[in-house]
Amino acid sequence: MAVIRLGYVHVRVTDLAQARQHYQETLGMDPVHEEDGRVYLKSWDEDDHHSVVLEEGGVGLVKFGYKVTGDGTLDAIETRARSFGASCERMSKGDNAGVGDGLRVTLPSDHVLELYSDVEYLGTNVGKLNPAPWPRGLRGIGVPRINHALITTEDPALLERFFQDVLAFRPAERLVAGDEDSDLVGSWMYCGDQPHDIAFVKGANGKLHHFAYEVDDWSALLRAGDVMSMDDVPIDFGPARHGITRGGTIYFFDPSGNRNEVFSGGYRTGPDFRPITWTMDQAARGINYTHREIDQAFLEVVT
Amino acid sequence: MPRVTVVPHDVRVQARPGESVVDALRRAGWRSRYRCRRGGCGVCKVPLVEGRVDYPQPVAESVLAAAERDSGLCLPCRAVPVTDVVVDLGAEPLRAVLASTALPRTGFSRTTEQEGR
Ligand code: FES
Ligand SMILES: [Fe+2]
User: Fold this and answer.
1) Domain range spanning residue B22?
2) What residues in chain A have their Cβ under 8 A from chain B's Cβ atoms?
3) Of B41, B101, B102, the CB nearest to A303
4) Does B60 touch chain A (CB under 8 A)?
5) Tens digit of pLDDT for each residue in A219-256?
6) CA–CA distance, A183 with A54 (Å, rounded to integer)
7) Span of the secretion signal (chain A) (predicted)?
8) Any CB–CB contact under 8 A between B73 and chain A?
9) CA distance B32 to B6
């Protein structure tokens, strides 16, 4: 009975044609479904119907979805969410193309989180029988899958408690300004054995800092940077290593200004992992271990 | 070509047709305050002191509200001057950079992009 992974991110874009160019040709995702003003996309190594939805009009996060196991997890989460005091409602098959019945929760941070176990299976682009390690004819970066999202919240301690109590996530790394609960600045939390499946830092409610794609390794990351240069994608920072999660990173922006990341590596966690603490005087190193310096605006810039 | 004047620095550059204020400055070797350069984050938002700009790319109301436009604010990373303009970048200094403009998407090209600096 558990949350499995980040399933999809649904974002607003100011211009759908330009967004498609970015997500399909630069990142290399495949469109799987279209309806008015929306495109649903899947990366090549993902099994499920889609992992990104682009919706024309505005900028920022509409909602995101986490896939859960099918053994009564939704009922259990609903009970716990209600006793936590979060508002939730059942969502129906067809609310999202390819996704079945599920649960829609409004987080204490005002973000809309959807949970589901029933989703149309499309399969990876290499199949399950004697598969090749990667498909021929990838476009651009050729991202294999999405990995995590980072959102902002006015009350990181409250949101951490929500993810812990309601969704059984655990913190892998915590950024703290002091010893009090209210001193929590950010938390990187996992549901399986990644260093993070969700992260949040202190900031405005309801906002998206970035969502990330996983790539194989450091050299895939550098190659991703080459493609970004070819396509004149604005880089926020990187390639660099994160102190927090130890992953490799490049942060960049889509044509509407939503921040994306390509992320590689990171250690493994698991149910017995003890959380790591970062103090504010080392926050720059935590975020950018290589350069040890980040712009003040980095954490504040969200869509 | 419309002229872009930045105050209080009193830097003047020419904007090419269709070029945003930020891109015109970058081509001339100046980095102003920006983050996403795609109209999403609002970091570049400053007063437009004089002149008119156009937004060929749609800009989200949540980033630059109509009321803000009316009150004289602009989004330099997306604002394309239609007349000579003056923007007030405030206290934050311009930083000298050597920035490369976007390349044509396919392979080799004879287009020269050299007259800018
Ligand atoms: S730099 Fe992000 S809106 Fe202009
Ligand atoms: Fe990340």
Assistant:
1) 3-96
2) 12, 14-15, 18, 57-60, 230-232, 234, 236, 253-259, 295, 297, 301-303
3) B41
4) yes
5) 999 999 999 999 999 999 999 999 999 999 999 999 99
6) 35
7) none
8) no
9) 10
B45 alpha carbon, closest ligand: 1
pLDDT > 90? residue B93: no
Examine residue B40 and state whether it is found in any structural domain, yes or no: yes
**Half-sphere exposure for A171 (CA within 13 Å, toward CB):** 22
Structural domains in chain A? 3-116 (3.10.180.10), 145-300 (3.10.180.10)
Q: Could you tell me the CATH number of the domain that includes residue B14?
A: 3.10.20.30
Measured CA to CA, the distance from residue A113 to residue A211 in angstroms comes to: 14
Return the SS3 of A220.
helix
User: Based on the structure, what is the number of domains in chain B?
Assistant: 1
Is the CB of residue B102 less than 8 Å away from at least one CB of chain A? yes
pTM of the model: 0.93
What average pLDDT does this structure show over A27-32? 98
Task: Please check whether residue B113 lies inside any domain of the structure.
Answer: no
Establish whether A267 is a catalytic residue. Answer: no
B103 CB neighbours in chain A (<8 A) are 230, 232
Inspect the interface and report whether the beta carbons of B36 and A15 lie closer than 8 Å.
Answer: no
The predicted complex's ipTM stands at 0.87
Residues on chain B touching A303 (C-beta within 8 angstroms): 40-41
Taking the CA of residue A84 as centre, how many other CA atoms within 13 Å lie in the half-sphere pointing to its CB?
23
Q: Evaluate whether A51 touches A8 at the Cβ level (below 8 Å).
A: yes
Q: A106: which 2 tokens?
A: 């409004």
In this prediction, residue B105 has a pLDDT band, given cuts at 50, 70 and 90, of low
For the stretch A56-95, pLDDT in tens is 999 999 999 999 999 899 999 999 999 999 999 999 999 9
Nearest residue in chain A measured CA to CA from B42: A301
Which position has the token pair 């990173």?
A249
Closest CA to A176 of A157, A163, A152: A157
**Looking at residue B95, what is its pLDDT?**
86
Residue B116 in any domain: the answer is no
Could you read off the pLDDT of A140-193 as tens digits, one per residue?
Answer: 999 999 999 999 999 999 999 999 999 999 999 999 999 888 899 999 999 999
Whether B16 maps to a domain, the answer reads yes
Compare CB distances from B35 to A18, A60, A236 and report the shortest one's residue: A236
Question: For residue A253, which atom of ligand 1 is closest to its CA?
Answer: 2
